[in-house]
Amino acid sequence: MSKDASKEEKLIRAPGDLVSRLKEAANREGKTFYRYVTEIFEQAIRAYDMKHSLKEILDVYEILDIHKEAGAVFTPRDILEYSVERISQEDDGTLRRLWYQTGKWYGVYLKEKSEYPVDTFTRLLQDGRWDLNEVTVKRNEETVEFRCVSLLASQERTLLVRNFIEGAMHSLGYGTQEQECFRGIIRLRFIPIVFPQP
To answer: Which pTM was predicted?
Structure first.
């Protein structure tokens, strides 16, 4: 392919409202429309080369941003397991209460920031570096059921994650209907809390 052929420009059709939003974004960035759109295409190809879509990458970034807002830090698994084991030997339930309260904070935050907070919370569990091998959610009009499996989590860490999920869902307006929790396996079913009308 000649150098000129590689620089050949093509006309691409796009919805008018999308083009308007791209122009606004380019202006905010202080870039020409051409340069801004070219950079978007380059990043889409970069994501493709990484075997991901831009949507997948942005979804993970959104989850990491929620963790950042919460003040979360990532810890190597061995250090986390050691710390949890040592604390739980003498703990009076404070650690579990803290995980529950942290879950409640996440729930409040997601209610404010997300149009579909339960869906965002589900993605947070799936992509949020919780060391969970499997997270499935079944929803209908009456219940939301979480099933989480981790091949590596200890019994105590499994209980902490359960408390975190309960805290978040309670903040999102759901009450716990049923629960099972064994080492590495969590199953929780929630129902919407209906408050009586005054």
So the answer is: 0.74
